[in-house]
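Worked example (supplementary).
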Amino acid sequence: MDESNNLSTSRRRLIQGAGVGAGAVVALGAGFVGGRASADGADIPATDDGDLVDLTASHAFYTGTHQAGIETPQQRHTVFMTFDLTTTSKQDLQRLLAQWSAGIAQLQAGLPIGSVQPTNSAAAPQDTGEAYGLGAAALTVTVGLGPGIFDGRFGLADKKPKLLADLPKLPSDRLRPELTGGDLSLQACADDPQVAYHAIRVLARLGRGTVNTRWTVMGFGRASAGKGQATPRNLMGFKDGTRNVKEPADIDTFVWIGDDSDEIAWMRGGTYQVARKIEMNIEIWDADRISDQEDVFGRSKAEGAPLTGRHEFDTPDFAKVVDGKPVIPVTSHVALAAHENNNGIRILRRSYNYTDGINELGHLDAGLLFIAYMNDPGHFIQLQTKLGSSDRLNEYISHVGSGIFAVPPAPKKGHYLGEELFG
Amino acid sequence: MSTASRKAAVSLVAALSLASLAACGSSNGASDAGKGGGTTTTKDGVSQVSVTMVSGAAGDSCKVSTESVPAGPVTFTIKNESATGLTEVELLQDQKIVGEKENLAPGLPASSLTLTLGGGSYQVYCPGATAETTAFKVTGQASAQPTGSASSLLTQGAAQYGSYVTTQVEAMVAAVRKLQQDVDSGNVQAAQKQYGEARPFYEKIESDVDGFVLPGFKPTDNRGNLDYLIDMRASNLDPAVGWHGFHAVERDIFANQKITAKTKKLAAELTTNVTKLAQLSKSLTYRPEDLANGAAGLLEEVQANKISGEEENYSHIDLVDFAGNVEGAQQAFAYLKPGLKALDASLTDTISQRFDTVNSMLDTYRDPNQIGGYKRYTAAVKKADANKLSQTVQALQDSLAHLAEKVATA
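After joint prediction of all chains, the assembly is encoded as:
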């Protein structure tokens, strides 16, 4: 693994997660238990730590391999924010990336950035303090570089990752300019929401004068599963991410830019990040009959089994026809997104549920912060072109925010993110 | 290079080329009057410089008769011939206002400003002109530069800052008196215009003068709180004391568009209260950290009340106040600058650059046809621009926040 999962012996802050799959066992004492006693014996490993959360866990930053927050077991909460550079100085950008790198290393170790209570009474505290004493809570902060970095303002056009470009207009897009784009992205994920929020707050503060905030989403519940994690549910009440990319070999194939890639050299070990803010029409969805809801997803609601199977991890049988009709409708979400129907293409999803309160109509304003990682953004474009054209889910959702970012590899100690850009 | 510093560099180049064009005729010392063409003239040992504001096809311009004078007394004779977009001229040295003339409407008689200048580089600053700054050189002996440790430089700067506050307070009393006259005359339009002229002064020095309690009143009694009596907004009224001051007048002349006996009473009271304030402010002394905290406080004012549009709820001249707050903060900073440079040159540069950035942003809102000289801060302007305004000011405020700790421990 590329990141140390530094599990402390202290279990005082071990928390039994909510929303664990059926059959979860409460942890007693030290050690792990199976998060899911899978009756079907499906592909959940025995070492599964289920939804146990260790608030003392921390992830190393200076790994020299991949950035954390991608393959890392998905944490409970996120704050995702994008920024616009207000400078045209390459040096300012360089300084920002160096400062952010050092800051993220501190934060991921559970340390404040500078003093919370300065000894000089005239000084403003450097660290804002709200995460003081909360521990690292498995925080990861993942930095992305938007297409704007390479647009000529900074003389970096010749360093542009080959496949980095603004996403084209995709079917059903209802993007709002104020929720779209950005020169830089920060994805902070943690098992304590206040730790994630603190990270974004202090990093935004470090960047002030160099970057302006652009858009943000705060996600309160994970809506994708990684290896060894029970599949969580999105706000439509369906399990999301059952068929996510989980095995390290698959992640190498579909996510990381490998050494043999013809991508620009400094991106090796990196990946691409696509973020979409997807609004859900929750009230309308809630009034839909269960049979239709299941046809929209192509899965059963409680178990999450494909409509052709009995258990969540049963492989969907898209060819199965009853009474002359496919059992899994061809325009269901699972059928359109399945790798079997997309030339084997897969992307790593790392999404979160979000709520923004109440909208101007008095409806619950909520949805999915879809974040995905892939070594070719064309894969997302291909999938979303298909989904946006015919997904039955489109009746209940709209893509209102969007961004694409190149994610450089993690630096080694003594270096910083994106250093190769300034060589 | 940041946008702001690029702009600064461009205007510097423009100023330099102006200076070199004029170089052949300048710096002649004491020559005869009337030769013109960039020659310095003197009268009774006082160098004479005329600044003429004219309109032209390419916009308004500010013409300075010479770019160089010898050190010593200098009289600037400033005349606005036809430039409707220009109303003020300042002489700056290292961002500090050395002297200024305001309310320069076209056609008014020339006004003059006499200053004793030491050798060095200055700029004649005409906000709103096509070329806003003109380099102005004073040759010969520099005025005695403050010397000593960073700490004594800061203390000297803080003491000198007192004269800036006095100038602003006096100008406020005069402008408020004129506002009272316009209100008394019953001319709503004139009163509105003068309201815009009178407002910025308080905003420039608010953090220095907002703590006065009239003799005989408890600090918690708003009847004796001069800041309450002068600058209270509708949102924070004390029902026991009622509404007084600038914003009560603002409501009458902008929202009601009517001058009543009550309005006249409010305007007269305002004159009384700013006059009391002027008296009390004479007792003020300033430590370096007061300037630093005051500057940061003025920017807090911008964030809390101007960008929200709350301050000037009826007149919508929030950007006029905004510019006043920024000028006040920048002047406090400028007086600390000699000492601060010795303490932390890089922080000094950062803050200077961020003031430049905020000022060039504010420049884009200048509109000589509007009350106070800035665009009205309407709901539409707020919706479109509040984000940009706020984030730009925040970057300045964050760097200014480090000022107090630096100077307090020097």
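Two points are worth noting when inspecting this output. The CA atoms of residues 65 and 327 of chain B lie 27 Å apart. Residues 12-139 of chain B form a domain with the Immunoglobulin-like fold (CATH 2.60.40.420).
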